[in-house]
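Researcher: I'm preparing a figure for a lab meeting and need a structural model of a single chain. I don't have an experimental structure, so a prediction will have to do for now. The sequence is pasted below. Please return the structure as tokens so I can convert it later.
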Amino acid sequence: MLHKDLENGRWAELSFPQQMANIGSETSRIYRALEAGKEARAESAFIRFQELIDLTIKYGRTDASPMLRSAMLEELCRLRELYCKAFLERNLSELAAFNRYFDRFAYAA
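Model: Understood. Here is the structure written out token by token.
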């Protein structure tokens, strides 16, 4: 794991918008690296993206009601699935759309 310092509970201290904004930083790095043809850099950022979204699935909104937490987990898992598909297909237009989605969290954070 690259984000060992976040695993020890620091990630859970961030608000949900902050967590999503940090994930968005990695999606932005992925997109820029793919545009520039830097596959290794994109792969590294993709690994970091997966770690951060997995931490959010594990620790995000644990204070929420069980029904809200369940819905959030379902959406995060679907988001992870769709993003991974777009990355593996190197679908730049879909990846750009994800960047716009994550940008909203950066503004909120």
